[in-house]
Protein: ABC transporter substrate-binding protein
Amino acid sequence: MPSHPFRRSLTRALAAATVVASLAGTLAACGGDSEAATTTDAAGTVTVGRVSNGAAKPVELKVPEVKALNAELPAAVRRSGTLKIVVGALPDGFPPLAYIGGDQKTLTGAEPDLGRLVAAVLGLKPELSNATWENMFVGIDSGKADVGFANITDTEERKRKYDFASYRKDNVGFEVLKKSTWNFDGDYENLAGKTVAVDNGTNQERILLEWQRKLKAQGKTLTVKHYAGKSATYLALTGGRIDAYFAANPGVAYHVTRTATSPAPTRSAGTYSGAGASLQGLIAATTKKNSGLAKPIADAVNHLIKSGQYAKWLAAYNLSDEAVATSRVNPPGLPLSDS
Structure:
């Protein structure tokens, strides 16, 4: 299995790939953390994809409280009536997962929207704050936040301090022109003879270079290209100079959505676990160790899965290929050597 850099590098790579330029000034002014504007949904209702700036198809979901799950909560959280959710999206955000929406104030994206859905199931009012990646963990450590929803990978190293409730696959993926007939199909040998672009210093680059070495040992070629920025990469794709772009899957999903009505629409050509061949990487809600919150959050996600609301949340953001069958508390994560 290839080695994996700290999750921060992948998140930042995703942010660079998808940042909405108009948001930069607004978010940069917020500093290390900030209170985030919340939605005005009626009780028992969560609008997924509100003010998403085209990253999602807004859908209103009915999500009544499940009293049996509210009873599972730690007494202090149940008495407070709120779920303090922190999202590590400062300074720039990373669409479609977490960023400031088109109204220039509401924290939106797949991650905070799932936090709102979980809070509704638990009968709690979501209280969202936005922070830098580092300050997000400080907030969880200090108790300022109950849980982090921010594309956080489950790792064995992090389990020393945190509990996890998994909710999404941690995948990387291939983006090709919609007219292309090529698909990855989960087999690196299908890359033989192809030219693929990847960003420097990312997890997906490490995976791709390992595949390149394996193919070379078989007498086959895989040409790997690096470009100075996303615009150059996408120009190379539309111009036919590369066959595919290998990137964080949510970024691929976002760009596919953005190009749907353009002269050169793209599509996903397949995904791969960010943890490598031997383990499916998982994204998880992150709570302080032994806080008692991981199980009720996992149970809330499983309720959303069974009710069909989970599938609608993923579909709104074009992330259905990252669905998990069930949420688990502290499932196997990236091993210590790769964390």
Q: What stands out?
A: The first helix runs from residue 7 to 18. The mean pLDDT is 89. Residues 7-170+279-338 form a domain with the D-Maltodextrin-Binding Protein; domain 2 fold (CATH 3.40.190.10).
